[in-house]
Task: inverse folding
């Protein structure tokens, strides 16, 4: 909420306007009020986009519906509260349909302060969601550009093993134009006579794992590649396609063959140069180990948060998907808990981002310590964490965990000699009643978490459809 709230009051009765301003002051709101009674003055004030509009329903020159129309015409998202005498229910309904935030009777103005605060909070929530939507669109565009600019061949297969999408590197590696391969069977590059589904089942080692294979160029030449194959699953967990990433390892194969010849040469000289051979062999082992370690580190970073080492959003989504499948099969429940640290921004601002990072690491460690091994805690970014509670028998199991987490934060965190006290707000969604897919469960847990913050923070809140 702004330090000074700019309020536009649409009223022709000065006494009524004074009563409105009195109630705003009584509610502890610091306001700058401007009173108008005509359409021209009202339109002029809209140019400066006030924070709030409080309007009498019916004025000689302008009624609330007309004022709402003028507001919508300018596409302004400004809370609009109607304060009026007795009106029919159909009038109230029409005003709410046209965008009014709330309405009050003039003889019940005591509720004005709370109505204003609620309207401003609702607007802030809308702005946050719009910002999140823009970030998502930007993320999708960056992802598309990343795929297209990748030097690795990336292509999508349908469950029928036809190519439904590919990037520029795919065309360059296999010698085709996109229109030559889209909709075509994978056999256009896959040399084996076996069914491709069987091939994938045989070589598929798990998400993010690599396997060497041989594909065919348009000219018929063999191309050794390193493949990463990931399944695309529907809401029921059934495979509906595959994401394939192929990297040309021709040079690596040549290097491996050259290395093999070199080793054979060293074996021929072993009697004369046994010591040199041992040194070279040990060096080779170290290089291979370093490469494998680098690959494992890169793979870990792809699925874990770099700061806390917790699973990231990608690994979390995969685990939650598997838990949903397991819960559906064995008639269990799955709990999804969204945690947001209360006052974390204050810690960052007062003690610095380095201290904030250490606090996030400590929180992650403590959360892992109180959860079961079968549960998952992940960092979603910023000061948000999310927990998957596996195989619940009843909803109250989740509330026990939530209380344990809140109690965890009662003890200050000792960070670099500083005792830091923070709390957390928790939103809980339960599969299957609050959603049957990853996106819905996370969204509803997030909504419940924001409701917990609205209720005063340092608490947990169940998701409720009636509050949406």
Result:
């Amino acid at each position: 909420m702004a330090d000074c709230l700019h309020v536009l009051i649409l009223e022709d009765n000065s006494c009524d306007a004074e009563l409105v301003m009195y109630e705003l002051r009584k509610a502890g709101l610091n306001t700058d009020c401007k009173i108008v009674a005509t359409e021209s003055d009202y339109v002029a004030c809209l140019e400066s986009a006030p924070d709030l509009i409080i309007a009498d329903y019916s004025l000689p020159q302008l009624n609330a519906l007309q004022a709402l129309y003028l507001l919508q015409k300018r596409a302004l998202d400004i809370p609009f509260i109607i304060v009026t005498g007795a009106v029919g229910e159909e009038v109230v309904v029409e005003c709410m349909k046209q965008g009014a935030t709330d309405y009050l009777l003039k003889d019940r103005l005591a509720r004005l302060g709370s109505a204003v605060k609620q309207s401003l909070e609702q607007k802030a929530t809308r702005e946050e969601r719009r910002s999140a939507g823009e970030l998502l669109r930007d993320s999708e565009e960056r992802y598309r550009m990343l795929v297209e600019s990748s030097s690795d061949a990336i292509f999508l297969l349908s469950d029928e093993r036809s190519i439904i999408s590919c990037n520029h590197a795919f065309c360059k590696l296999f010698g085709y134009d996109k229109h030559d391969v889209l909709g075509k069977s994978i056999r256009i590059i896959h040399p084996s006579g076996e069914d491709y589904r069987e091939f994938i089942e045989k070589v598929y080692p798990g998400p993010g794992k690599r396997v060497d294979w041989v594909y065919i160029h348009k000219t018929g030449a063999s191309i050794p590649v390193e493949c990463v194959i990931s399944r695309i699953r529907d809401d029921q967990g059934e495979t509906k396609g595959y994401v394939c990433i192929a990297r040309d390892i021709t040079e690596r194969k040549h290097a491996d063959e050259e290395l093999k010849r070199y080793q054979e040469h060293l074996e021929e000289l072993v009697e004369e140069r046994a010591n040199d051979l041992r040194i070279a062999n040990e060096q080779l082992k170290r290089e291979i180990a370093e490469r494998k370690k680098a690959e494992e580190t890169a793979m870990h970073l792809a699925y874990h948060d770099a700061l806390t080492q917790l699973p990231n959003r990608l690994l979390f989504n995969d685990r939650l998907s598997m838990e949903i499948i397991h819960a559906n099969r064995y008639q269990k429940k799955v709990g999804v808990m969204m945690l947001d640290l209360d006052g974390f921004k204050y810690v960052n601002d007062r003690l610095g981002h380095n201290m904030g990072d250490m606090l996030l690491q400590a929180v992650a460690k403590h959360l892992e310590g109180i959860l079961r091994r079968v549960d998952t805690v992940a960092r979603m970014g910023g000061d948000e964490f999310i927990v998957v509670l596996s195989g619940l028998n009843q909803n109250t199991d989740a509330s026990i965990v939530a209380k344990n987490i809140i109690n965890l934060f009662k003890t200050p965190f000792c960070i670099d000699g500083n005792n830091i006290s923070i709390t957390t707000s928790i939103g809980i969604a339960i599969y299957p009643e609050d959603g049957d897919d990853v996106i819905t469960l996370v969204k509803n847990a997030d909504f419940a978490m924001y409701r917990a913050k609205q209720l005063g923070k340092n608490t947990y809140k169940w998701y409720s459809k009636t509050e949406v």
The chain has a mean pLDDT of 87. The chain has four domains: 5-126, 150-248, 253-302, 313-467. DSSP finds 15 helices and 17 strands in the chain.
